[in-house]
Each structure stands twice: as structure tokens, then as C-alpha cells.
Amino acid sequence: MKKLLFPFAFLAFSCAAFAQVGIGTTAPDASSILDLTSTSQGLLPPRMTTAQRTAIASPATGLLVYQTDGTPGFYYYNGSAWVAYGATTVTRNATLTGTGAPASPLGINLANANTWTANQTFAGTFLIVSNSRIAMTNSDNNARDIRLQEPSGTGTQYVGLRAPSVANNGNYVLPAIVGSVGQALTLATSNNVDSGSMQWSTVGAAVQFHGTLTNSASYSGTTESVVIFNSATTNVSSQMNTSTGSFTAAAGGLYNISASANLSGTGARFLAINVNGTDVFTGASGTGSVTFPGSYATTSTASVSTLYPLSAGDVVQIMVVTNSLTAVPSTTGTTRLLITKM
Fold this sequence. Notes:
The structure is a single chain. The chain has 342 residues and is mainly beta. Helix content is 6%, strand content 37%. It contains two helices and 26 strands. The strands form seven sheets. Strands 14, 15, 17, 20, 23, 25 and 26 form a seven-stranded antiparallel beta sheet that branches. The longest helix is centred in the first third of the chain and has 17 residues, at 2-18. The chain is rod-shaped and about 120 Å long.
């Protein structure tokens, strides 16, 4: 009996002394307690469902299983929760909240006053998809900035955008095209409450058309006719058609429209500003009454001038109205038109 027990006692002493086990090898690595060696087989850990994994009583820290349902993969117990192997974790005194599902937004609770990291970087483009928004909220009613840091890894200066206190949600739609050098973003349309669409506009007042007549035409009495300013000193982007006398606004905004005409003939004569086929402003004519068809001297200077808001594509014409048999505008340069975008 003593002879039979001696080999087992020696084996137990050997295992305790070396504290190493080799499977598939007779020389387990000295740094391992268990060395599995194979070129044709792998290690198969316990496989179980999510319910079976969470039912493990008092799991030890470091316990590893393979989950077969839900999001399959290796899961290990970190001492307080099961964690999917390879999942990103936040360890800076932070906890994750929510699941990202509807009504359960994913959040990071830092539990301190520090930023997440000093310099958080992303590989390539940081993309937010599926009808998402980026929003910053606060609980102390103080506005926060969206800051663009100076171009340096250690830069501390920035340019920021901050929202004021508002009563309604506002949106500003950017233009879909690139503006020209010297232009600035201005409001093209607005609901006069909280939102609007932006457009590229020339900074300051800029002359869009300045022209006179070179070919005089006779305008019949009681007929409203287009004055054709066919000699252009300035005609930005050919907005004025010098053959038809039609100015088509290239961009929306406030325009100063000013025209004058030295008209020969007997009777009342005046000019009108016509936008998209409708007279929107009527000017004075000569001296005396401006009520049509009051009578004037043989030659009188009619003029019209106003500030008028135009939208892109609006067509402006200068009309002449007379109650005489004929009226002929002068070609000496006194019949002229100036359109300036403010």
C-alpha cells in the first residue's frame, strides 16, 4: 500500500513545485500556469446565451465566456459588469447612459468638471448619420460656445459662435453656391420671427447698371411704354438687357432705382418703376402738378427714384407715360438710369 501511494505523492509534489501544466507540449512556458500548444485546434471557452451568462452567480473578476445570442462574442466580467471584449469603454470617472434607441439617447456622464480628453481626435471624417443633429444644452441658462481652435496642436486661442436667449427655435439656411470675393452673407428671406435663408451679397452699395439713351424713340400719348436704356456704362453680369430695357436682378436685396428723362412735347409726362409687369412707384414730372394728366411746358424733366426690395429673378423696367400726341426723350445724357444694390 505504501509503495502504491508514493508515485502519486511525487506527482502532486511536482505539480505544486513547478505550478505549470502543458497540454500538447512537454515544455510549458515558464511564465504560464497552463500552456496549450496546437497547430490544428483552438481553445473553446464555455458557450451560453445572454440569459445564461447573466444568471452566473457571483462571477469572478476576469471570468470569460462566449455569448451565442444577441450580440455574439466574448464577454468578460470586470468586477462590476459584463463587458463585450473589444468594446470601447470610458474610464475617466464616467458612466454611459442610454442605449441609443428612440427615447433613450446615448450619453456620457463625466461626473467631474473636466473635459472628456485634452485632445480628442478622430480618424478621418467624424460623421453623424440617420437624420441626426448636434446640440449643446445647459442647465444654468448660460449660453455655450461652438469654438474653432487656432490651427495648432497646443493653441489656446479660438473663435466661437454663441446663441443668445431666444423665445423660438431658429434656423438659418446657407446658400448652395459659393459667393464671389468681397461678398458677405445677408438675409435673402425671413419669416420675421426666428428663421431665414442666407444669400451672398456685395458688401456696401454697388452699382449694378448705369446707362443712358443713344437712340431716341417717340412715345404715343396715353400709352405706357418701356424706356430702353441702350448705352451702358456699368452693366454687372449683363443684368440689363439693352435691347428690351429689362433689368433682371441676379440676387435678392434692397435696390436703389433712380431714373430721369428729358422729354420734349406738350403735355404731362412722368416715369414709373415697373416690377414684374406692375407699376410699383410713380415719380414726379416737371414743375407744377404731378397729377396725370395735368399740363406742362413744352420740355420737362421727368424723374423717379425709390428704394425697393427685389428678389432674384425680378424684372425691372422704367416706364414713360404721356398724355401728349408724342414725347421724345433726349439723347444728350440727361435721360439716364442708375440701379444700385444696397
